[in-house]
Amino acid sequence: MSEETVSRQRLDKWLFFSRTVKTRSLAAKLVEGSKVRVNRVKIDKPGYSIKVGDVLTIRLERSVVVYKVTGLGERRGPAVEARLLYEDLTPTEVVADRQNIISSGPRPTKRDRRQLLRFLKQEM
Question: Domain RNA-binding S4, which positions (predicted)?
Fold first, then answer.
């Protein structure tokens, strides 16, 4: 395959189409903040071209995800369509930690907060 026949897509567009981030401007900020690696190389240009087969390591707010690009999007479609654009290679222990964070229980009430403050005052 020659270089001209390999289809490519901008990194920020792909992140938006794959539903990794909510908006394309957030995707650009994520890339500019050096939070995305393509094949283990830090990328800081949103216009960087990716192709099928590239491995993306994305550092999000509370987790790190590893995706292998399996397709290039043409639009931001439904989640089912977005999942066809990548294969999730995130290590299982990271996924387990993410589940623990999500299922840590309901939000504390005002009563819980007051009890915690009383407890912390006793410790001092």
Answer: 9-70
